[in-house]
Design goal:
This protein is of the alpha+beta class. It contains five helices and 15 strands. The radius of gyration is 16 Å and the shape is globular. It binds magnesium ion (MG).
Length: 204
């Protein structure tokens, strides 16, 4: 399976990092070895001095698809989760300056803690009306509704599938809202999907 992550998909997050709003959807990959499951602890890597959390809605692809029209994209997922797209901000910044890939900054081992998946039906809501929150040490640091996405989940699926075939079990991280920040040893992160705690990550 593969993990596809969308960047710069919430206006306020683009502003907080001083980035430009892209003309087309920005995406990158993480390898499957990035996955961190079952609320396992996250160990700060020693090859960065600025490790940042990005809480994101994650969609699981449920069948193979290529060149999926946006109006049919809904048929390609039925489960959602929350995940952290953990980013080595200093490594990423250097890569950006030199025009080099973000692979190390985004794809290192355990850079994608993820909750279990929940049926979208369970929430009885449109995927573009899902609330999610991230708490750091008991304080809310990220709070968003998926209606704030620049590109909807269906548009993302349609766009990516023009270039990369989506397969059953692939994950799509759909971008982070504002409020990203640095992770320190001892921090405890809790992510809430529609008010329900679904993910806990302790930083070691
Ligand atoms: Mg991200």
């Amino acid at each position: 399976m593969k993990i596809i992550c969308v960047g710069r998909n919430y206006v306020e997050h683009i502003k907080e990092l001083g980035n430009e709003t892209p003309d087309s959807i920005v995406f990158f990959l993480k390898p499957d070895t990035a996955i961190l499951k079952d609320n396992e602890d996250f160990y700060l890597p020693d090859f960065s001095n600025n490790v940042s959390y990005e809480c994101e809605l994650v969609v699981k692809i449920n069948k193979v698809g290529k060149c999926i029209p946006e109006r049919y994209a809904k048929d390609y997922y039925d489960e959602i989760a929350l995940g952290l797209d953990i980013t080595l901000r200093d490594v990423q910044q250097k890569a950006k300056e030199k025009g080099l890939p973000w692979t190390l900054a985004k794809g290192f081992d355990y850079s994608a803690p993820i909750s279990t998946f929940f049926s979208l039906k369970e929430f009885g809501k449109d995927i573009q009306d899902i609330n999610f929150t991230l708490q750091k040490n008991g304080n809310v640091v990220q709070e968003a509704n998926t209606s704030l996405m620049i590109n909807s989940v269906d548009r993302i699926i349609s766009y990516i599938s023009q270039f990369i075939t989506l397969k059953t079990g692939d994950y799509i991280f759909t971008g982070t809202p504002k409020g990203v920040g640095q992770m320190q040893i001892g921090d405890v992160f809790k992510a809430y999907l529609e008010g329900k705690q679904v993910l806990k990550v302790e930083v070691k």
